[in-house]
């Protein structure tokens, strides 16, 4: 076998003659222009990368990034994050039990009512913190009276400060119960002064006195278009089926103790047949099952509550300015629906205006919200006028050049009384701070000087500001 | 061999200096205002350019005084007061009307010259002589002054330091809100169960006491993991371009700072379980709890630094040695 240049397996070296010959062939091939042999044999020319040289063509600038590291833990389930955010904690097992704290029993409610009354010996409860009994706490939790911002989670068990306004309100509630009259009240005050807390105290007193309590914790949920709505046939009203169903469920749960002792008396025109002689608790439960029937069930429930021999009713609403104008819902003509055309809101408005009365006595209380709330000129004016009326001052008339008044809101609120809630007194502030100190949460000496300091720094006793300064370390 | 005497240095101490080496400072321009006494409230301050020359006639009169020539009459007539001043006989024999007038003028001049401050002082002296307390409108503060009495030092130093390190984009109030959340989280979470393998600072209170004193809780966690030293890598000092690790002792604030940074790092790596604005604060608070319970990886970091420091302790005098050689 003749050794060739390319045969690497051959151990024999190629003879010089062969090398010379092969190089000569190559030279001939290169010099012979008409031979295609070498070009055919040659490898295909390496294609140039288009990216680097071609003009006008987009280059691929993508840098291969590292993929995001996968979470080793399972992410929170749907709704879990929100639940964590909205969770209401009512107990801190680290906090100390406050000795000698009384519970808000019916007797204590009576004592509170007598406290600032003229011609009565005070029970000395104003300026003290009273505890909420377990059953009341469950009911208040069911109607969503507690808020996440109120700092319940710092103390051993829920307690609330009795202040002068509390005593006044309790007295008015008890008078309404006694006379079977309807108290209509608007609560107002600066941000953080305790309007929602006053509502809560009214509700707690009502629960202690075996009233039936209905509460709308956030009025904006009724008007800002987050719930489904449907026209009620034969009227210009709109029902909010899901909200009503959930509300009925809450009412049934919160007032279960009383409602399960009350039986249906009348027969109502209901869309679904129900058993006879069922309790009102059961009736609420049935109504909450199907959103489509909830509104009719609520109407029947309300009629039942107003039958003679039923307990008094407390209907409360927080964030009143949200329901004193146009809602975010639209009608069939794509126009905004007025809030008072929403059936639930109209129910509240009719009662606070005094057109509908509570047959067994009770109260309708609306509270304003002063943080991030819509401005309702009519509501503000109505509150102002009510305060002037109560003080027997000259009543301010509405601005004739102002166009933003809402006639329906004015009409709804013109007969209601009002209560302005201001800062705590120094005595009340001291009671509150002593409670904090006794709970072990405030690590500071509580004396006249420190109380005066906190009181002054908190805008003359704005409760939330005192709390913020003392418990949340912000000054 | 005794050290050689250097005559130059020995002679230096013998020189007699008649003058001070540095001239005492003598300001060219007198500080007129600052030299004024407190009692001189009535006279306005005069600056260097406020010495105005007298009028022409006054100058002529002065010149006449010097040269003895006739001088212009400046005052039209000699006032009676001047005559009475010069002549005590005349004063004695003066009519009662003039005497009264003179007395009134004297009194008025006294009142005019008494300043408000002087009057106040006189009043207080009178009161003091009657044995009444004179002094402070709001009383004196109790001494010693409290540590947090100053506006700028109202928070605990550890709380202050953590707040500042929590702060992002210069938003101090957000950091303060987060700090408040952290402290309240420590307050409300169940008491920690410390790990005996990861001992906290000696003398720390029992774990059940911690939640109700959240500042102490935070301080204890931070001080327990604060490293005693840091490792400085001196480039090329180990020879052949290798870095030499030198342990450097840290002060209290620096130790705490390192610990807080470690906690912040591991809080950053945690995963949030909820939603809302206090997620980071929650993770930070959880990290504090896990530090006290000995579960945190920050403990590893601390022991690593300490181990490196121990093994590199031979390099401790690195800088000093070199300085001594150079000397």
Automatic annotation (TrEMBL), chain A:
Localisation: Mitochondrion
Domain of life: Eukaryota
Molecular function terms from GO: structural constituent of ribosome
InterPro entries, alphabetized: Ribosomal_mS29 (IPR019368), Ribosomal_mS29_fun (IPR017082)
GO CC annotations on file: mitochondrial small ribosomal subunit
UniProt keyword annotations, A-Z: Mitochondrion, Ribonucleoprotein, Ribosomal protein, Transit peptide
GO biological process: mitochondrial translation
Protein family (similarity comment): Belongs to the mitochondrion-specific ribosomal protein mS29 family.
PANTHER family: MITOCHONDRIAL 28S RIBOSOMAL PROTEIN S29 (PTHR12810), SMALL RIBOSOMAL SUBUNIT PROTEIN MS29 (PTHR12810:SF0)
Protein name, per record: Small ribosomal subunit protein mS29
Organism from which the protein derives: Hymenoscyphus albidus
Automatic annotation (TrEMBL), chain B:
Small ribosomal subunit protein uS7 domain segment(s): 156-313
Name this polypeptide is given: Small ribosomal subunit protein uS7m
SUPFAM superfamilies with a match to the protein in the record: Ribosomal protein S7 (SSF47973)
Keyword terms, alphabetized: Mitochondrion, Ribonucleoprotein, Ribosomal protein
Function, in words: Component of the mitochondrial ribosome (mitoribosome), a dedicated translation machinery responsible for the synthesis of mitochondrial genome-encoded proteins, including at least some of the essential transmembrane subunits of the mitochondrial respiratory chain. The mitoribosomes are attached to the mitochondrial inner membrane and translation products are cotranslationally integrated into the membrane.
GO CC, alphabetical: mitochondrion; ribonucleoprotein complex; ribosome
GO BP terms: translation
KW Ribonucleoprotein (keyword) present: yes
Subcellular location: Mitochondrion
Family indicated by similarity: Belongs to the universal ribosomal protein uS7 family.
Family annotation (Pfam families): Ribosomal_S7 (PF00177)
